[in-house]
Amino acid sequence: MTRHVQADHPGQNGDGPPDRTRPELDDATVEAVGRLSEALEWVERARGALYEFHQLCGHADLTLGAAISQLEDAGHPRTAALVRGRLHGRNVLDGRWTFQIVEEYDDLYYRPFVDVDEEVRRRLTGGERHVHEARMKARERARAGRDLWGPGA
User: Fold this and answer.
1) What is the per-residue pLDDT for 150?
2) CB-CB contact of 39 with 114 (8 Å)
3) pTM
């Protein structure tokens, strides 16, 4: 990765958006912090999938409840009791419903991951997010002859 940043682009003279490339930082640091942030993005995606799992299971349980009621209304109380007894309100994992799994993930993994990412950025990039991507944007827009930080295409 090159460290070239146009000296006359907005932000350096206070006349436009700030320069988010942090030109004073070495490439290895920017890449390492960027990789940590990428890992956090995957954790965020996993968290989203976990919330989707939580909602899917919750919806299935509500639908199951409706099926039990319909079986009762259709005159099948013994079958409704069988379904209720074997399925309705079951734990998804041993001793836990999905909301407990989500909470445990958030408390034991997600929040510490976010906290560490923020601390590393505070220490190494002054808290700036996406420095790696800002450099990529500046490099690609400069190569294309575009204003680095301006509006439009």
Assistant:
1) 78
2) no
3) 0.78
